[in-house]
Design a protein that fits this description.
Length: about 1000
């Protein structure tokens, strides 16, 4: 043992003694690194761990602050992953110790995790959870105060201006220039805005050595409160971001994600959001000044030089970012409008558009416009790309002439492949700007350009670069509330610029420029690029004309759709397609969160459909086995054509006479036996059931309803009331007093099962029981709701005689009987047009929806003349959309296709094949407990044990996920136990599709562990 080892061992022994004496703790002690303090890890026998800190004598305020904050957090934030103080035997949080001089000892609870800087698990979740932790921490620190935090601290970037005198100490002119500019900007423009922001004590040093991550990359701890200071709250986000972004692909995205996570738990103001990007840069600038100062004082400290390499590299990356875009992205992530005044500019434009002058050809009052598709996905993309300017000009002019158009346009929002070259690259590796931010107007060179409204010349620029903007003018305008914006005119003639001077006023309608020829306009076929600009991003006359798809929500505010100015007779813009992550986030933000997403862990973006298949954005085809709505097949050409034709003629409400409506009611009613002759037209299945309830109440004079357990009849309040699936499920408010629930006739796991020939009558007895329960209170039923096959009940076919007996009980009590055919109607069951017909009954009211319009929102009620007459009590029945001519034509087309393509018979043949196949599989896979259904409305119930019928819900989840991922088949689960595989594909689902499904199911069940 060397002398040093002996000394170290003696120290450890002293510490062990201290631990026993002061805290009654015995354990292994090992030293940890520390700059000023001595730190030790203490492991006790039961596996528990502690951190022992022996603080060097020094600033009492500083130590007091660190002790006070942990005491405060122990009280105020029990759940935060920060160390907790461990009290000594006397209840004190510090102990005097002598080790290399007098020291103050503190024992803290140990935090598990790897240091961020070294953790392999670092990922986007780390950034989110760090923002979240800091937000929660700062909320707890809001009321915290301590003398030690009220200091003038060099590491407080809220006082960054104090470093201005140190800029000259930095080695390297480029670094000095960059740091000097950042600090000057801080003093001139950041600090005055900070003055309006909240101040409080913050941690101030969530750097990559002070943050711990667990193995999933989630933040598991924050340590070292020695840099706390009372300053602007937003500094916390900036400091953490400066470290979190090191080495990430998209540094601004990292800052935005961290700020957004902080904001979710501790909302920041717009002003704070605006300052974060500058403050991150300020942190780097301060760090470089501090390092320069320390290196001057201690030239041997090479460690500082190394850590400064990271700082300078990251600062340079941020310097390459466009500041305005960075700020807009951070604002957007926090839920603020990316460009604060963009919406108000657009509103001003929309309000005033009627008075705008026409930009080209003001003499033509209603211009004919030829629309060109320059998108990368255009079928002509390769041809356009191959043309030089002259050839493109000829082709464009030819097409304009061919269409007798006055000019041509290229669209806003189009994703174009034509923008090659470095100019379109962003600061992020591999990213290119490609979305067109303006509208192109094609006309010959020399065509005059007129100002749409008054303004003044703000910027003139001539980039003289091939495929650049060429001569460009930006006119500046102001709204009536003083918001400034610009209109941009690119590809002008060079002589246009010569005639204009900065500041020169331009009046509305004034012809101030002209289209340039290829040799002067950047080498393009002559056209005007017209763009709105709410923020020129500091680029002035060099403003971009093309934006980034992945940040479209920001770019579309920087340059909104100029259609509002142009007022053309054709759309001048397209919707920019976005990736799935963005669409999910925006859905959550802008659409009610209770709207669910199928396969939420890996949702699908579906852009097309054909027959029984759906097509996603990559062109992958998915076999759709759940969509009974597009009953005659996705986008069936006959239905599409009928809709298009009628939409081109007339669509109005049903108050006028129209042949299609009457013809449709005749055709629909003819699908039912007498006396079901009268139709009402509505817009959804829920509405149909609601109207049916009103009809029944009007006819019977009763109010009560009997419904079958687990049923779903719609989302209206009245229908939630009669849907046990909803009122007895999550978020439900229980059974309303006017509703009786009859036992669900489940032949597989209910009281009476397959083989009981009397099961129908026995289950129907419970309908009678409900009637008796009503009668006991002097009430009678208005309506009995039932489907012909129970959908949400688990695709259950009804026992023989069930509806016949139940209807008899209800009618005997003066009630009416409704068959809800919203799911199961229109020939899907194969043997009949309507599922209730499999029970040999004629209801009093039938409701239809989903398949009735093949996806078009329409629905219907069919009932008897007597019931309809009782409803005509003086109150008008009006439904704005129900029965409109377009819906009627679509309804007719659906009936035609069902008839002409023999779809009912097809459902029977393929449905039988499917059930035979599934039953054959059940002989090999014991997990298949039951196969049931009619036609193409089927349930395959999975159980873990055929005796106990224990539901195999997790297994079904696996099956559904596998069928999607491995076989591209879309399915879903059903039933009270979520263990029934629901099958209800569009009717064109073929025998080959059926066999493919059965093979895939066989394969998937085979991979379920026994
Ligand atoms: C049996 C049944 N009835 C009614 C409805 C409600 O139809 P809609 O969603 O068109 O309002 C549904 C919808 O799933 C249903 O399954």
């Amino acid at each position: 043992m060397t002398e040093m080892d002996v000394k170290a061992e003696q120290e450890l022994a002293a510490i062990r003694a201290l631990l026993i004496e002061a805290y009654g703790i015995e354990g292994d002690v090992s030293p940890l690194p520390g700059e000023h303090d001595l730190n030790y890890r203490v492991r006790v026998q039961d596996g528990g761990q502690y951190l022992l800190k022996l603080h060097a004598p020094g600033d009492a305020d500083d130590l007091g602050m660190q002790i006070a904050v942990l005491d405060h957090l122990a009280q105020a934030a029990a759940g935060l992953p920060v160390s907790r103080p461990v009290l000594d035997r006397e209840g004190a949080s510090t102990v005097k110790a002598t080790l290399r001089g007098e020291r103050t000892a503190r024992l803290l609870t140990w935090l598990e995790g790897d240091i961020w800087a070294k953790a392999a698990s670092r990922c986007p979740t780390s950034v989110d959870t760090l923002g979240d932790l800091l937000g929660r921490l700062d909320r707890c620190l809001e009321g915290f105060g301590h003398a030690g935090t009220k200091r003038v601290y060099a590491w407080d970037i809220g006082r960054a201006d104090m470093h201005l005198p140190h800029v000259d100490l930095i080695d390297g002119a480029d670094k000095r220039v960059a740091v000097g500019a950042i600090l000057e900007r801080f003093a001139a423009s950041v600090l005055p805005k900070l003055e309006a922001c909240p101040r409080q004590v913050i941690h101030n040093d969530a750097n990559d050595y002070n943050v711990l991550l667990d193995e999933d990359g989630r933040v598991s701890g924050l340590i070292d409160f020695g840099d706390m200071v009372e300053t602007w709250r937003v500094v916390e986000i900036a400091v953490a971001s400066a470290y979190a972004l090191i080495g990430t692909r998209d540094p601004v995205g990292t800052i935005a994600a961290l700020a957004a996570a902080y904001h979710r738990v501790n909302p920041i103001s717009e002003t704070e959001a605006n300052l974060i990007f500058d403050l991150v840069r300020t942190r780097y600038a301060v760090s470089m000044c501090m390092a320069a100062k320390q290196i001057r004082e201690n030239p041997e400290n090479t460690y500082l030089l190394v850590s400064q390499e990271d700082v300078w590299r990251e600062l340079q990356r941020l310097e390459r970012e466009n500041r305005a875009i960075a700020v807009a992205r951070i604002r957007d992530a926090c839920g603020f409008a990316p460009v604060a005044h963009a919406a108000s500019v657009v509103r001003w434009l929309e309000r005033n558009a009627h008075g705008f002058s026409v930009i080209v050809k003001p003499s033509v009052t209603k211009p004919e416009v030829a629309v060109f598709d320059f998108s990368a996905s255009s079928p002509e993309a390769a041809q356009w790309a191959a043309l030089d300017a002259a050839a493109a000009e000829t082709r464009i002019a030819g097409q304009i002439r061919g269409q007798s158009a006055d000019f041509g346009i290229g669209l806003y929002g189009e994703d174009r492949g034509i923008y090659q070259g470095d100019a379109y690259e962003t600061a992020t590796a591999g990213e290119r700007r490609s979305i067109h931010l303006g509208v192109d107007i094609f006309a010959p060179a020399g065509e005059p350009v007129h100002a749409p409204f008054a303004g003044k010349v703000a910027f003139l620029h001539d980039d003289a670069v091939a495929f650049g903007f060429g001569p460009t003018v930006l006119l500046e305008h102001a709204t009536d509330t003083g918001d400034i914006f610009w209109t941009l005119y690119g590809h002008l003639s060079r002589s246009s610029l010569a005639k204009l001077a900065i500041g020169q006023p331009i009046s509305a309608g004034e012809s101030f420029a002209a289209f340039g020829a290829p040799e002067e306009n950047g080498n393009w076929a002559p056209h005007l690029h017209f763009q709105l600009v709410t923020d020129h991003l500091g680029l002035e006359g060099c403003m971009f004309g093309v934006g980034l798809r992945d940040q479209w929500q920001v770019w579309r505010e920087v340059s909104p759709d100029p259609s509002v100015v142009l007022g053309l007779s054709v759309p001048a813009s397209v919707i920019v397609a976005r990736d799935k992550d963005f669409l999910v986030r925006e859905r959550h933000r802008r659409i009610g969160r209770s709207l669910s997403i199928a396969y939420s862990a890996a949702p699908l973006k579906i852009v097309g459909g054909e027959g029984a298949h759906l097509v996603d954005e990559d062109g992958t085809r998915w076999l759709d086995m759940v969509n009974n709505v597009c009953h005659v097949g996705h986008c069936h050409p006959r239905v599409v054509k009928a809709a298009q034709a009628q939409m081109g003629k007339l669509n109005t409400n049903s108050r006028y006479l129209h042949d299609s409506l009457v013809e449709y009611s005749r055709r629909l009613a003819s699908q039912f036996p007498d006396p079901l002759n009268v139709c009402f037209f509505v817009n959804s299945g829920s509405e149909a059931n609601d109207l049916a309830l009103r009809l029944a109440r009007a006819y019977t004079g009763n109010r009560d309803v009997i419904t079958v357990d687990h049923a779903y009849h719609g989302h209206l309040s009245s229908m939630i009331d009669v849907s046990p699936y909803k009122f007895a499920g999550r978020g439900g408010e229980g059974r309303p007093a006017h509703v009786q629930v009859a036992e669900m006739p489940d032949l597989y796991r209910g009281r009476y099962r397959y083989g009981d020939v009397d099961a129908g009558r026995k289950y129907a007895d419970d309908v009678r029981n409900q009637i008796l329960a009503l009668a006991a209170n002097g009430r009678r039923p208005a309506l009995f709701f039932s489907e012909g096959i129970l959908g949400t009940g688990g695709q259950l076919t009804l026992p023989e005689g069930y509806l016949r007996e139940a209807y008899a009980h209800v009618r005997a009590a003066g009630g009416l009987c409704l068959a809800d055919e919203v799911q199961v109607g229109f020939g899907r069951v194969g043997s009949h047009m309507w599922a209730h017909q499999t029970q040999g009954v004629v209801p009093d009211i039938v409701t239809m929806g989903k398949p009735i319009g093949n996806g078009h929102p329409m629905a219907a009620v069919v009932t008897t003349e007597a019931i309809a007459a009782s409803f005509a009590n003086g109150m008008e029945y009006f439904n704005t959309f129900g029965g409109n001519p377009v819906s009627a034509e679509i309804g007719l087309a659906v009936l035609d296709v069902i008839r002409d393509e023999r779809l009912m018979h097809h459902c029977k043949v393929v449905g039988d094949r499917l059930m035979d196949g599934a039953r054959a599989l059940s002989r090999r896979h014991a997990i298949i407990g039951d196969v049931r259904g009619y036609g193409l409305f089927n349930g395959i119930e999975l159980v873990r044990d055929r005796e106990t019928l224990e539901p195999a819900a997790c297994e079904l989840d696996f099956v559904i996920a596998e069928m999607k991922c491995k076989h591209r088949i879309l399915l879903s689960s059903e039933g009270p136990h979520h263990n029934v595989l629901k099958v209800k594909p569009p009717a064109p689902f073929s025998a080959a599709d059926c066999d493919y499904f059965l093979e895939a199911l066989d394969d998937t069940l085979g991979r379920l562990s026994p």
